[in-house]
Specification:
The chain is an alpha+beta fold. It contains three helices and four strands.
């Protein structure tokens, strides 16, 4: 089943985010190589594609896991959690209706 993982950044997370990003992206690439990643990306803090020092407010990942527990365990092991980028993470089942 698909699950959406919504991470919310701490205030002024950009420095921590950039430091943890290589490990975070590496885990996402593993999901992609396994054919389980649907979409992943950050939420800019401002309405531009390159927010520079404005940074980000969080991220969205939609991926396939065997269960909600597996999705939660995967999310809790993310470098953005471990290195203090996210203040909280929400994991919910997701049904892709369109397209």
């Amino acid at each position: 089943m698909l699950y959406m993982i919504i991470g919310t950044d701490i205030e002024n997370s950009l420095e921590k985010r950039m430091a943890a990003r290589p490990d975070h992206v590496s885990r996402l690439k593993q999901l992609q190589e396994q054919g389980r990643l649907v979409i992943a990306g950050p939420n800019p803090a401002v309405d531009v594609a390159e927010p520079t020092e404005a940074g980000f407010t969080g991220s969205l990942i939609v991926a396939e896991f065997d269960s909600l527990e597996d999705a939660q365990n995967w999310a809790s092991d993310d470098p953005y959690i471990k290195q203090g980028v996210y203040s909280n993470v929400t994991v919910k089942p997701f049904i892709k209706a369109l397209p």
